[in-house]
Amino acid sequence: MLNQSLKFPKADILVIDDTPENLNLLSAMLTEQGYKVRSVTKGSTGLRGANAVPPDLILLDVNMPEMNGYEVCQNLKANDRTREIPVIFISALGDVLDKIKAFAVGGVDYITKPFQLEEVLARIENHLTIRQLQQQLQAQNQQLQQEIHDRTKAEEKFAKVFRSSPNPIAIATVSEARFLDVNPSFLRISSYCLEEVIGHTATELDLGKNTIAFAQKIQLLPETGSLYNQEFEFSTKSGEVKIILISIELIDLAGVPCALLIANDITERKRLENEFISLVSHELRTPLTSTMGALDLLGAGQLGTLNQQGQKVLSIATTNTERLMRLVNDILDLERMKSGNIFMRQAKCNVAELLITATEAMQAMADKLQVQLIINPLTIEIWADPDRLIQTLTNLLSNAIKFSEPGDRVWIGAITSEYKTVESLENQDSDTKEMGASNYVLITIQDEGRGIPEDKLQIIFERFQQVDASDSRNKGGTGLGLAICRNIVQQHDGKIWVQSLLGEGSTFYILLPLTR
C-alpha cells in the first residue's frame, strides 16, 4: 500500500541552489516530511520551472553563477504568475545588509547557513500556513466582491422596476406598518405626494375602512408568511374609493424586517363584474322563467296532448332548462359573494337546528334514491348566517346522496374541536393550519359512495371542476356548488376540505369558529 504522503504531498516546494550537497540534504529532509520537492541548480532553470508549474514555496540560495538569488527573486515578483509565491532565502551570507536586500526584493524570510533542519521545517510550515490563509482571504474577498456586485445589480434592477412599475408599490416597516417608500404609481392612485406618505401609516392617511386589520396583517408577516391577492377598499386623498388586489412579501432592508406591498387596481373590473351580474339577472333569468312557464303548460296538457315522442322531447327540454336556471343562479350567487353584494345576515343559531333542517330538506331525495340519512346533531350556538349555512349543507348532502348507491348511508354530524385536534386530521386542507388556537365546531358529511380521485381533491372547490363532468351533468351538477360552499364558509371565517378514498366514500369537513 502506497504511503499517504506520496499520494497526497503536503505542498510543492522548489529548491534553487548551486550546491548539490545542499540540494540533496534539503530534498531528502522535505520528502521525508511529506513534501513534493523539485531541485534545480540554476536560477534561470528555476524561473522556467516556477512559471510552468508554480510551486507553493521556493527555497532560494543567494550566491549562484549567472543569476544570483536576488535577481531570481526580482524576476519572480515581476511575473503575475509567480508574484505571490513565498520565497525563503537560504545563504551563508549573514550580514544585516544582505538580509535587508533579500526582504527588499520580495523575500519573506532569511535562513543563514549552516542551517538547522528543524528551523527550516518550522519556517516552511509557518510560511505555508500564512500563504494558505492569504489565499483563503483572497477567495473570501473575491466572493464578497462578487456578492456586492450581484447585490448592487439586483438593487439597481429592483429600483428600476420599483419606479417604473404601473402597479402601485410600497415598502413599509413590519413593526409599525409605516411607509418607507412608495413608487410614482402609488402616488398617482392615492393623489398624495411623497412627503405626505413617507413615515405615515395607512390608518393615519385614512387609506381605507380596514386599515387597522391591514396593519395587523403586516405585523404578523414573520409568522404567517406572504399574502397574495387580498381585496381591499382603497380611499384616495379626495375620498374616492377604489378596489385593489394587494399582495405582501416579507423582505429585509439593512437588517430591518419590512413589507413589500404590490397593488393592482381592479375598480374597473369590479364595475364590469357588477354589470355582468345585472345583465345575467335581467337578460337571462327573465326569458328562462318564461321558457320554463311555457314548458310547464305543455307538460300539463293545456296546449294539447303530446304523443310519446313529444313527451320525451319535452322532458329533455325541461331538464336542460332547469339545469340552465341552476347554473345561472349559481353564477349569480358566486359573483355576488365575491363582489360583496350578498350581505351575510349573521346571528346566533343552533348547529343542531341547522343540521336537522338541511337533512329534512334532502330527505325526499334520499328516499327516492334509497339512501339512508343518519344525523348526529350537536346542540351548540354559533354566529352565522343560517340560510347560507343550510345552503352549504344541503349542497353537500345532495352531492353525497347523488353519488351513492341504493342501500348506502350518508352521515351528517358535528363535534366541538380544538385547533390541536383539527391539526391532527390527515390530509387536511393546508389553510386550516393557519387558524389560531381556539375552539371550533367541526361539521362532517360522510358517504359510502364512489369517492374522489386523489388528483381531484385539491381542485374540486374551484369553479366548474367536477370529478366526472359527463356523469355530474346527468345528475344535475353545474360545477359551481362546491365553489359556492367554499365561499360561504370562508365568509364565516371558516375552512372547508375533503378526505376521500376511491371506491370507499368521501368525508367533507366544515370548520367554523364558535365565537364571532
List strands and helices in order, with pairings.
Blueprint: H1 4-7, E1 12-16, H2 20-32, E2 36-40, H3 43-52, E3 57-61, H4 69-78, E4 87-91, H5 96-104, E5 109-112, H6 117-164, E6 169-173, E7 179-182, H7 184-190, H8 194-197, H9 211-219, H10 221-224, E8 227-235, E9 241-253, E10 256-265, H11 267-299, H12 308-339, E11 347-350, H13 351-368, E12 372-376, E13 381-384, H14 386-402, E14 409-418, H15 419-423, E15 439-447, H16 469-474, H17 481-491, E16 495-501, E17 505-513
Parallel strand pairs: 1-2, 1-3, 3-4, 4-5, 12-14
Antiparallel strand pairs: 6-7, 6-10, 8-9, 9-10, 11-13, 14-15, 15-17, 16-17
Overview of this structure, please?
By secondary structure, the protein is an alpha/beta fold. It folds into 4 domains: 4-137, Rossmann fold (3-Layer(aba) Sandwich); 165-265, 2-Layer Sandwich (Beta-Lactamase), CATH 3.30.450.20; 269-339; 347-513, Heat Shock Protein 90 (2-Layer Sandwich). Helix content is 47%, strand content 22%. The strands form 4 sheets. Strands 2-1-3-4-5 form a 5-stranded parallel beta sheet, sandwiched between helices. A 5-stranded antiparallel beta sheet has the order 7-6-10-9-8, with helices on both faces. The longest helix has 48 residues, at 117-164. The chain starts with a helix and ends with a strand. The model is unreliable at 1-6, 419-424 and 426-437 (pLDDT under 50).
